[in-house]
Each structure stands twice: as C-alpha cells, then as structure tokens.
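Milestone 3.1: sequence recovery, worked example.
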C-alpha cells in the first residue's frame, strides 16, 4: 500500500523535533507493508527532495526566499492573521502545495492521502481527492482544532474538510469530543502519534530539586503559571526551560520580576537527541498547558520514568492518570501547582513509582509499532469501505 503524507510541519533534518512524530509514523508503517512519501514546505537551506530515514520527502517553494517564513515556526496562524505579506504567502503556499501533491499523486500513485492537520494540509487534500478520487484521511493534532474553534471563518472550512474525509483521526479523546461537538455527524477515531521508545529511556541519576519544561513559549503552554508557582514553592527548586516562541522576552522579564533569575535556565530550542538527558536529570517535568491536543512532552518524560505534573486539561488526561502515571492540577491554579510540586519533591524517591508506572503505560500506548498498527487498520478500513 502507498500512502501520501501532506504536512506543513516535518523534521528539517535528523534530530529535529518539529513534526518528528510524523516521520516516526512513516518509518514504522514500513513494517505494515505501507510505503509513505511526504510533501512538505520548503525551508532555508533545505533540499527540494531528500530521503530521511528511508522516507522520500519533497519540499515545495511557495514564495520568494525572504517571505518563506510560514512553516517551521509554530506560529503560522498568528502570522497570517497579523500580516498581509503572510496572507499572500499563504495563497502561494496552498497553490504550490496542491501542485506538488498532484505531481506526487501521479508519480507515486497512493492508495490513501493522509493529511496532518486539517489546515492547510487537509484543505489541499480535499482538492487532490476531488481530482483523483483517492480517499483522504485527516488527522487533527490540537492546534488546528483550536483554530477552528476560535476563528469564525475557519469553522465552515473545518466542517468541509472533515465531511470530505473518508476517515478523521484525533490524537486524544478530548480532541475527539471537541470535534464531534463542532461538526455533528463526524465520528473521529482516536489514534495517537508515536513517540521514540528507543530514544527516550530511563537514566540512573536525577537532581531532586530540578524541574523541567519543554515546549513552545506562548500563552497556551502556560509557562507564566509555572513561573508564578516556582516563586511560591517552599522548596528552592530550579527550572530548566527548553523551547522558544513569541512570549520568550515577556517570560524572561516575568522571571526577573519574580526574583527567579538565578533559578531559571533558558535553553532555547534543542535537538531532539538532546532531550532524553534533560528528562533523565529532572525530578519532574511540568506541563502547565491548557487545551493541549495530547502532550507528547509528557509521554517522552514518562518513557524516561520522569514524573509529570500537568494541568487537568485537554488531551493530557489521556497521558496522565492522577496518582498513577503522574499528578494533575486544576488548570490555572498556581497555588495548587506550587503545593503539588512541593509535595512531589518531598516524597521518598520523588515520585519514582509514578515514573515507572508511566513508562509502562507509555510503552503500551505510544510505541511506534502500536501507532503503525492502528493507522494501518484505519487505512485498510477506508479502502475496504471504498471497495464496497
């Protein structure tokens, strides 16, 4: 079976974390006798065609180089909303994506088109489907569902993409429920993305007062809540912050105002291969996100047997079972977050049993072979339904 992946986020090279779960799924699908080809946007210094871990990737140009800044930033929606230049680049993006997807469809002859995120890839997928009648599978990852929910003009387009998809998948039960509420009649299937079980493994030593955050530095990720909680903790814990984003300057200033400068270390964006050691050294990983699509950071931490403290919100409930695989806190409750972190760090073994149980759960649910089997089953059901 041949499957064509359409995505606006994909690793730009080995070790790049952005969209790495899509590459991981493509690689794992080979064991299910499924060949994947990927169409993704161009980026600075990237070849127009390459092979990553045995997966062919074609990257499309969509604007003059200086304006090709929509992809790989994690900020596409905000850029388009605030800039006419970005709006024009988006028109070029959609057109070029469509042209290259049609070319790939002709040369690769896929049995399935699999769009990751309903926008922009799902929209392009419906166009290709209309020309070729190749069935479309659309996966919702979280940011795209928030876009459909918060931007009025996006809702009809969201509904159009889902209703023209032979199957819709979501990476968590929460996203499934959100989608069903917005588009009645659509029945999404929960099918998480895979995490590298080979890369993320337990270590031997931890710093009992070291906390870790990994993710985009924007409002939705809730780093401001974490900084306020850190300032309120009785334990003089330190915090490593890995990632970058539009709120970094404001967050650095907040840490200064809270008197946390000496206790917070800003790592910026790091290669995915550098993450395991950071997880292994941390006493706990904190995920203070609200309406997270799933929370792969939490999964990666559990694979390293690192306890996770998270807000009881969104898809994080699929990963963290309170007092079993981690600890959940009422969203936005900074005082409770501080108390929960103090309690965890004061426990014998700093919650090591939570990490051990979490690893077993993560292995059974998010291993690449598990995700590949799930998606292979979905593809075959779609093809069987079309055949009938």
């Amino acid at each position: 079976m041949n499957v064509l992946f359409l995505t606006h986020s994909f690793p730009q090279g080995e070790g790049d974390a952005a969209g790495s779960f899509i590459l991981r799924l493509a690689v794992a699908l080979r064991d299910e006798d499924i060949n994947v080809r990927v169409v993704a946007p161009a980026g600075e210094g990237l070849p127009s065609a390459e092979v990553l871990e045995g997966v062919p990737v074609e990257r499309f140009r969509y604007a003059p180089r200086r304006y090709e800044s929509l992809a790989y930033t994690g900020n596409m929606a905000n850029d388009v909303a605030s800039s006419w230049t970005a709006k024009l680049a988006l028109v070029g993006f959609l057109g070029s994506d469509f042209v290259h997807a049609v070319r790939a469809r002709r040369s690769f002859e896929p049995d399935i088109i699999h769009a990751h995120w309903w926008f922009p890839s799902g929209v392009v997928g419906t166009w290709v489907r209309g020309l070729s009648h190749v069935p479309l599978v659309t996966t919702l990852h979280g940011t795209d569902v928030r876009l459909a929910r918060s931007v009025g003009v996006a809702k009809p387009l969201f509904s159009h993409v889902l209703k023209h998809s032979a199957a819709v998948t979501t990476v968590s039960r929460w996203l499934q429920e959100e989608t069903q509420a917005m588009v009645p009649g659509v029945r999404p299937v929960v099918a998480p993305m895979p995490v590298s079980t080979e890369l993320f493994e337990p270590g031997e030593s931890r710093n009992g007062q070291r906390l870790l955050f990994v993710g985009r530095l924007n409002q939705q990720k809730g780093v401001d809540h974490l900084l306020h909680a850190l300032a309120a903790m009785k334990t003089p814990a330190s915090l490593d912050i890995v990632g970058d984003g539009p709120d970094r300057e404001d967050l650095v200033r907040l840490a200064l105002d809270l008197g946390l400068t000496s206790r917070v270390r800003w790592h910026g964006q790091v290669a995915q291969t550098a993450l395991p050691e950071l997880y292994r050294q941390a006493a706990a990983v904190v995920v203070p996100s609200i309406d997270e699509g799933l929370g792969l950071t939490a999964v990666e931490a559990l694979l390293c047997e690192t306890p996770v403290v998270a807000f009881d919100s969104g898809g994080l409930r699929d990963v963290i079972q309170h007092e079993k695989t981690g600890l959940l806190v009422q969203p936005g409750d900074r005082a409770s977050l501080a108390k929960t972190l103090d309690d965890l760090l004061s426990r014998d073994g700093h919650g090591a049993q939570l990490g051990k149980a979490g690893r077993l759960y993560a292995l059974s649910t998010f291993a690449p072979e598990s995700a590949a089997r799930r998606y292979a089953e979905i593809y075959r059901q779609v093809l069987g339904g079309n055949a009938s």
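The mean pLDDT is 93. The chain has 15 helices and 14 strands.
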